[in-house]
Write a structure and sequence with these properties.
Blueprint (H helix, E strand, L loop, with lengths): L1 H11 L11 H12 L2 H39 L9 H24 L5 H28 L3 H40 L1
Helix pairs in contact: 4-6, 5-6
Protein name: DUF4179 domain-containing protein
Keywords: Membrane, Transmembrane, Transmembrane helix
């Protein structure tokens, strides 16, 4: 039933299916020009500005890429926390000074009884230093990714924890040594 209604609808409509005469396209474009002469002028103006717009866009792209390159180079000079922000610079300085002080204290407390512990701690510190160097490269690649920054701070904290543990063990060894000497004297 539905198909019959559609057939009837198309039967009543008169479609012009004949080909247009020769030169139809040219006559059509002439009529368009006659009706809107300013369109051709607009196209001329657009054609005049097109190279300048392209050059300006290219220069803007070069400035943008150059800025990113120089920003990356400025960050790449050090690649550590100090290059991220002034607050991170203070954090890095705090941790490095604390680590240096604890390393000096460990070196002062070094004795034949604690030599093995100190040697092991220094080997672990070298591993943490190597890991920190990798994190510095990751920071350069990722820009200022917070995950890398947190990992770097965590690395500092691990070093300090390691050194505190070593200092505690050295103190325990010293106490045991003093207690043994006291027992031997009696």
């Amino acid at each position: 039933m539905k198909n019959d209604n559609i057939k009837e609808l198309f039967r009543d409509l008169d479609f012009d299916t004949s080909e247009p005469r020769e030169g139809h396209k040219e006559r059509f474009f002439e009529k368009l020009k006659d009706e809107n002469p300013s369109a051709e002028k607009k196209n001329r103006v657009r054609n005049l500005w097109a190279p300048f717009i392209g050059i300006a866009a290219g220069l803007a792209l070069l400035v943008f890429l150059g800025g990113m390159y120089f920003n990356h180079q400025a960050l790449g000079r050090s690649g550590d926390l100090a290059s991220v922000s002034p607050e991170m610079k203070q954090t890095q300085e705090f941790y490095t000074s604390l680590i240096e002080n604890e390393l000096k204290e460990i070196q002062e407390e070094k004795s034949p009884e604690t030599e093995a512990i100190v040697k092991d701690a220094l080997a672990q510190m070298e591993k943490l230093d190597t890991e920190y160097a990798k994190l510095k490269r990751d920071l350069l690649r990722s820009g200022k990714d917070n995950r890398v920054i947190h990992a770097m701070i965590n690395n500092f904290q691990q070093r300090i924890d390691l050194l505190n543990t070593v200092l505690t063990q050295i103190e325990e060894i010293k106490l045991l040594k003093n207690q043994n000497h006291e027992n031997n004297l009696i």
